[in-house]
Structure formats: C-alpha cells, structure tokens
Specification:
alpha/beta, six-stranded parallel beta sheet, globular, single chain
C-alpha cells in the first residue's frame, strides 16, 4: 500500500518519533512509505505545498507522526492542517491514523484532535498508538509497534475503520457590540488586565466580544493580538532552554512574554474556534512558552475566555482548556461564547464582574484529576531528567513539587500498623465494625469547635 507519513516533528529526519516509522518501513518492505517533513518545511509549504498534496492524494493510508506539544500537536503541524483545509485537499475515503511519542502528558487530547480533523478532511480513521520516547529501543516497544501496524493493514483491507461525520456548524448571527462605557465612570488603572487575543480583521464576532469586554470592565484593559506577532518560528524541540531558560530564537518573544504578558494581574484569552482549536498563531504562542519549562508560574492568577464558535460541540477543546487551567493553577473567572448571541452581552458583563471579584478578594482554587495526574507526570519526568532540566529541578525543590509519597514515612507507618490491627482477630472483632466511626472522629471534633 502507499503510505504517506505526515511528519509533524520540527526536527524533520532527526525526529525520534520518525524513527519508529522508519523501523516499520524497514521491516515491511512491500509497502511504500513516503515521508513528508511538513513541520520542518512549513515556511516553504505556506507558499507552495503542491507536491505534498499530490503525495497525500495518491496515498491509501495517511499516518500523522509527531511528538505531543502542550496538549496537542506542534504548531507547525497545526499550520499544515490549516493549509489542507484552505486548499480543500481531496482525501475522502483514505484511512488516517497516528503515531505519537510523549511522556503521556495529555496525549489523549492530541490524538482526539487529529481524529477530529481526519473526519473533517473526509478520511476514515483507525485508532493510533501513543508511545514513550524510548519504546522503540526495547523488544516490547518493537513488538507493540508491529502489532499496531499489522492490525492497521487488516483494518484497511477489511474496511474495519471509523467515520464520524463532522458536526453541522450552527450559522448563528455575527455578534455585534452591544455594551457601552459610561462616560462618567473613569476606568481604574490599579489592576493590569490583558486580553491575549488571536483573530484576523475579518473575524468580526470575536473582535466585537473583545470590544464589549473592554466596555464592561471597570478597569482599563489592554490587548495583545498574537496573530500580529512576527514569530521567527514555532518551537523547534531543541531543548536548549531546559538548562538556560532562554529560547534560541531572537525574535524578542521572551521579552514580550515576561514584560507584557506574564506580569499582567489577569488574562482573558480571546479567539475563534478553527479546526477544533484556534489558529496556529495561538498554538505557536503556547509552544514557545516552553522556555519556561514545566513550571506553573501563574498560580492563582484570574483568567477567562472569550470564544467565538460552537464551543458546546467541541468536547476535546473543552478538555484542553479545563486541563490548561488546572495545570497552570489559575482561577477561571468564566468562559463566554457567542453561540447564543442574545445572552452574550450579559455573559460578558458577568465575566468582567467575576474577574473584578477575583482581583480584589481571595478565591478558592481547587485541583482535580487534570492537575493531579498531569503534575505527577511532570514531577517524575523532571526528577528523572534533573541533570538536563536544571531550571525545573530548582523550581520543584523550592516549591515542594517533589511530593513523592515515599517521603511520607510516618503516614506509611500508620497505615501499615492500622492494616495489621484491622486484619488481626482482635481488629476484625473490635475495630472493623467501628472503623467508620473512627474515621469520622476528627471531623466531628472540628465541627464541634466551629
């Protein structure tokens, strides 16, 4: 079969992810593999991607191969997907799948993103495989890869593939600005509120939502439209920033981030949903923040979202946003969409009020599985790679993020002792029946004192 491999790694042929595909090409010589280094060549492909399109249209199977970058795909790959949509490439009836490498940090959202875009491009889909960075180097990883490919060919031959028609986009009316600033009220300037937006001049709805938020806020609001920023490129995956905390690009993004974005007291993100996320400019912004490593620097900061598009029909995007909020430790003041334009002005006003409250009063920031699971992956990774991730290691030591359970020796001892007591004849007769009462005792004491 003709297999086109969309290599989403910015490292091109030097990609660790790609090595697994090259391994398959070597042990399955009867199949024709064509490697497209789209992320590495994205600047050139923006001008001319005719050759890549021809290879894709000739293929029977299309494999998206990429390292997972901040919940999704590298921004360069997202840019290429945008090009496929813009050129209306005919991929109907072809089978798509994917192969990724990562530390398993939100690989699920990356996989779902590619699956959704595969359906949008008319392709059928076979579940991909999420591998660790070093899996190919051990026999188990090699066997897993071969089993995956054997089943892929079987599914294509037998037609055992999935296809979910893309949802019908609601053509709701364009949102028009409806809020006005009271000329008698002077905007306060003792808080720095930033709208980090990503939209073009023809994206009227989100532009008007931004205008109305500025009207609704009692504080002066500044805006940075990241679409207008001249990035030298997306994250290249060179990892040099891990030890230097500085990016190899000299496009002044670090200065922009540290002096104009990170120092804001509150941030509102504003964008139009495009291809199940936002424009690749915002993803480039996400990826380029990697020079900060895996350090939650905005803990407790109020944030909010203004989103134009069918957000209710985007569960994967919802998960990405929820998880991003959790991992960063920020306080979500609200998410406003223009799906029901009649209620959007009220929602924008409420977002401004909620943000105002969070800026002036202490608010509860709780953590759920998205935070606990994600940070445990980061914790273990940084600890193992502390020789390389020196800045992360220093931060984790200073902030107590190295919270390994084996350090809680007293608690471990207590549970071991409790287990022996409960499992003894005496415990089964005298402790187990009253175990719930014992567990409730400290809470009952607290309530009596309250």
């Amino acid at each position: 079969m003709n297999i086109a491999v969309i290599n989403g790694s910015p490292k091109g042929n030097n990609s660790i992810t790609l090595q697994s595909i090259l391994y398959l090409a070597k042990i399955y010589p009867t199949h024709n593999f064509s490697i497209l280094n789209v992320s590495q060549k994205i600047k050139a492909l923006e001008k001319n991607c005719a050759e890549e399109i021809e290879i894709l249209e000739y293929a029977d199977i299309i494999i998206f191969a990429y390292p997972v970058y901040t919940f999704l795909v590298p921004s360069q790959l997202l840019n290429f997907i945008e090009l496929l949509h813009e050129h209306k490439v005919n991929l109907a009836g072809k089978t798509a799948t994917q192969f990724t490498t990562s530390m398993k940090f939100y690989d699920v959202t990356a996989h779902k993103f590619i699956e959704e875009n595969s359906y949008d491009l008319g392709m059928r889909y076979v579940d991909g495989i999420s591998a660790g960075m070093e899996d190919l180097l051990n026999p188990t990883g090699q066997e897993t890869l071969k089993l995956f490919f054997d089943k892929l060919i079987f599914d294509v031959v037998t037609g055992n593939t999935k296809y979910i028609p893309p949802y019908e986009k609601n053509n709701h009316p364009v949102y028009t600005s409806q809020l006005k600033t009271d000329q008698n009220n002077i905007k306060l300037t003792d808080r720095d509120i930033l709208i980090l937006s990503d939209y073009s001049p023809d994206e009227t709805s989100i532009a008007n939502m931004v205008i109305d938020f500025k009207h609704a806020s009692k504080y002066s609001v500044r805006e940075i439209n990241i679409r207008n920023y001249k990035f030298s490129g997306g994250c290249s995956g060179c990892l040099k920033c891990m030890s230097t905390a500085s990016c190899i690009y000299k496009d002044n993004f670090e200065e922009l981030f540290q002096d104009s974005i990170e120092m804001a007291d509150a941030i509102i993100y504003a964008f139009t949903i495009k291809n199940h996320y936002a424009h690749s400019s915002l993803k480039c912004y996400d990826d380029r923040q990697f020079f900060n490593g895996h350090r939650p620097l905005n803990k407790g900061k109020p944030v909010g979202y203004l989103i134009s598009g069918n957000y209710r029909q985007e569960p994967n995007l919802q998960m990405v946003i929820d998880a991003r909020i959790q991992i960063s430790g920020t306080y979500i003041s609200g998410i406003v969409t223009d799906e029901l334009v009649q209620s959007t002005p009220t929602s924008i006003t409420n977002l401004a009020l909620s943000l105002e409250y969070a800026l002036n009063y202490k608010v509860a920031v709780s953590s759920n599985f998205y935070y606990q699971g994600g940070m445990k992956i980061f914790r273990d990774m940084v600890y193992l790679m502390q020789g390389l991730m020196t800045e992360d290691d220093k931060f984790y030591k200073q902030t107590g993020l190295y919270d390994f359970p084996q350090k809680q020796k007293l608690k471990i001892f207590k549970f071991k002792l409790l287990g022996k007591l409960i499992n003894s004849k005496f415990g089964q007769k005298n402790i187990q029946p009253k175990l719930t009462n014992y567990m409730l005792k400290p809470y009952e004491n607290l309530l009596k004192k309250s």
